[in-house]
Fold these 2 entries.
Entry 1:
Amino acid sequence: MSDPFSINGGSAVAMVGKDCIAIASDLRLGNQSLGVSNNFEKIFGFGDKCFLGLTGLATDVLTLKETFRFKTNLYKLREERSIEPETLANLVSSTLYERRFGPYFVSPIVAGLGHKDNKPFICGFDSIGCIDFAKDFIVSGTASDQLYGMCESLYEPDLEPEQLFETISQALLNAVDRDALSGWGAVVYIVTKDKVVKRVLKTRQD
Amino acid sequence: MDIILGIRVQDATIIATSKAATRGISILKDTDDKTRELNAHNLIAYTGEAGDTVQFAEYVQANIQLYSMRENDIELSPLATASFVRNQLATSIRSRKPYQVNCLIAGYDTKKDQPTLNWIDYLGTQVELPYGAHGYAGFYTTSLLDKHYRKDMVVDDGLKLLKLCLKELETRMPIDFKGVYVKVVDKDGIRSVELD
Amino acid sequence: MSRRYDSRTTIFSPEGRLYQVEYAQEAISMAGTAIGILSSEGVVLACEKKVTSKLLDNDGSAEKLYIINDNMICAVAGMTADASILVNNARINAQSYLKTYNEQIPCEILIKRVCDVKQGYTQHGGLRPFGVSFLYAGYDDRYQFQLFTSNPSGNYSGWKATSIGANNSAAQTLLKKDYKDDLTLKEACELAIKVLSKTMDASNINSEKLEFATLSLSKVEEGKVIHKIWNDTDVNALIQDSGVLNDKSTEDD
């Protein structure tokens, strides 16, 4: 009941396609069973083709969003280029491990394309920064069990951007419909080598 | 059991807070104002642990006024004000003795000509909402607000909707909360409103 | 005798002066010139690169121009090593303001914070003051485009057009003569080139001796500031456009 990971609710998922990636989250923010906002995005961009999804305790989602904005902005000024997804993954990992004995209650996911080679990259983390590398998909949040089920059955490798959008959307939507703490709208980012498309999905509003 | 409620309409944000100050089974006071003016266009309404609430509200009030004194009377915007308050609470929650204060911040952005309502809880969770409440009031009023809220409402419509919510609260809440103070934040600043 | 009052930064001389601070300012007045010009459309910063050896292997990034955040850039005159400490401090300050308030830091607040650091070294003993002056170009929604300078004493001031470094008084005289309130950004750029071409020792100016940066508003996205540190081709094109080369060649004839 007082598990910090499921006070506010929310879920996110990332997938790899052919020379593209997709990352998506729901939009709900709640206080236990009471829905508070249907406009709480959990995906944040750092650099042009690099995204971070944060689910878990909403206050920590906001704090970490601000912290990584701080760190990646300074990174960009010092290195004179945007951060790579692999680099962001290691930054997330070390930032979370700094709080090893009083962790942020979040389960982050990172997805992006390399800036030069456009190589797809996705990974997930536990709340103290252990990286979970994956070739196919990463799930997180209160509907993560349902998302595993949906992704296992819908995912196939080398999907084109449009097919990947369909796959990730169906996976997320059908997973959050079986979770009382997730849903209330969704947002999907499809990242290809020359553009990022953001789509806001209408879903059941209960 | 304190009630704080906020409704954002097209040109203003309305805040209602219960007048009762309770401790245990007693009502100590029926003229308790659970709001503080942070600056000319930002009002904080709070509930939570007795003692923490006023202490916290006056602490952020002082800091926000200090900012204006240092910056030639330039006001912090509602977003900046709410972000500052959130930051304080998010820092506090990981300290030895966290502030147990939930709040609503009603603001009017004079640059963008927009009213705002920020919902912040003691954990530091912050969201911008069209309407919101803390505590038990939320359970009784959100469904009413969901049904009757319209984007194009003005202050009078907002006050009507507020009255609807208060009627529900008076029927359903187990104890008398001694009525509410109603305040409106708009382009001219903060003003109190008497509900008839 | 003078040694008695200038070996420590924090001791006043009998005439009421802080020699170390004055020496720091002296060091700056020998550094390469940097000028800044404010226009209604944006701000231009231009600086003179001193001694460029053919053997110097530089990575193409500007030496004396720094980006502070999305809304501010600055030019440096003086000791570059000292400057990088302060620039880093400014960048961190800008980001922590953004973190607490979710808004970009207003220019003057940031400048004030950096100047407080500088001032500290004129009062707390044991260390020398920072040997740098800055030209800050910035934008915020309080006062739109702004141009500031700061010096080792920790003082700062706002300007329409000004210069720091070598020959700054000559540059200021020229600026005072040619500055108009209704300058466009292009005209401001050309004025900057014109003034620099007269104050620099070099006979012909080109991108190897100049660094150039502008701050302007995006035409597509409202309120978005564009900062551009110019590449060599653009600088050369601007020099061409400004017509200073033609003036020179006719004078030579």
Entry 2:
Amino acid sequence: MYNFAYHKPKNITEAVNILQNADDAKVLAGGQTLIATMKLRLASPTDIVDLSDIEELATISKTDKGIIIGAMKTHTQVSKSEIIQNNIPSLSYMASQIGDQMVRNQGTIGGSVANNDPAADYPAAIVGLGAKIFTNSREIRGDDFFTGMYETCLNSEEIIVSISFPIPIRSAYVKFKNPASRYAIVGVMVADYGSDVRVAVTGAGNSVFRLEKFEQALSNDFSKDSLSKLTVPTADLIEDMHAGAAYRAHLVKVMAQRAVSDCCSQI
Amino acid sequence: MSISLSIEINGKKQTSKVNANVLLVDFLRDALKLTGTHIGCDTAQCGACTIHINGKAIKSCNILAAQADGTKITTIEGLTTDDKDMHPMQQAFKNHHGLQCGFCTPGMIMSALQIIKNDNDPSDASIREGLEGNLCRCTGYHNIVEAIKAGAKAMQNKG
Ligand SMILES: Cc1cc2nc3c(=O)[nH]c(=O)nc-3n(C[C@H](O)[C@H](O)[C@H](O)COP(=O)(O)OP(=O)(O)OC[C@H]3O[C@@H](n4cnc5c(N)ncnc54)[C@H](O)[C@@H]3O)c2cc1C
Ligand code: FES
Ligand code: FES
């Protein structure tokens, strides 16, 4: 890893100032992806802006918009937060299934979302729960945020401040883990908002996507059986050493049906 | 760039100068000579480098020393004050044959203490789940799980 200038600003304005004035600055959340990237010299920033001292990024609250989670909240904090457990248990469960206990103690929601690993769990929650991402300069719909493999619509001087999740009537996240890394080979979030049912898939494609056909079927009849005749097209799915596209397509349907069953057992 | 670090390490306050790009595990091993914390993979996979920062288990190969500024760190060396003594969890690993070569053991023990912090009477399943980030190439895990259960009991009896 090359050396760099290290900054630990106390507030967002100061952090954005550094990002705007440095040659090639990067923000650092827990470092659970960024450090590895820098060790491999896939990233060699001139400046690192550590967000861990910024209090505004470290809150969880409930408002009329739903649950709002600060970008620096760790996976452990999200999984153990009573506010989240009581309002969106699928989200605390999802956070409890990320990696291992050490990664969960250090990795953050903001870092995971900004990184947009195709096999990460959070993107399924952001899109599946119709979340909104608040940055230092704007508000972005979860549906518009993820633009491709490891790509988002964030610009290099932008910091995720918080993410808001509307509270569904019921929701569930089910993932088929890669047994070595615990990343999702396929992960599916199903959320029922009454008039609106959302089904979001991570791990299977280059980036998270919604399954409109599944959503329509569940809007008409929220049951596992309503998905039994549907299939998942393989054209855009990932084919790699862990799973082929046809297997992933099959897993998407099975995980979606399990998520629907979980939802049905909640009411 | 070099920065100044103030860390409370195993109960002792310590101020040092370190380059910004130094990993915490290298700082502990090379600068502080606390070589009980091991480097197995250097890629956040094996857990041999697990230490506690402010009471939380973290892989020290996957964070910068700079990120630990102002924190309290406990490494395997900090579990007892006397070299002749063993922490109940260390003793349990010894008694239950929870190690063979011992390379993974410091990380296993620091992870075990986090598992017990979350639940002081963990089930086999939750111990195994808690150890997802720790690899052992020798023991096959069975005796590690037994050791952690026994260590948990011993700690309850002690405290
Ligand atoms: C062994 C291991 C197993 C893992 N398993 C899983 C898993 O099963 N599922 C899963 O989803 N993830 C998994 N992860 C990833 C983990 O969830 C981390 O949260 C993720 O890597 C991001 O790390 P971080 O939060 O520390 O962010 P960092 O590594 O610090 O940052 C990641 C990227 O996001 C940018 N960034 C960070 N915060 C912000 C912000 N507020 N605004 C804008 N940009 C920002 C950084 O500049 C960087 O580019 C695993 C990681 C490891 C090491
Ligand atoms: S050396 Fe840190 S996880 Fe392997
Ligand atoms: S005892 Fe040898 S690696 Fe665990």
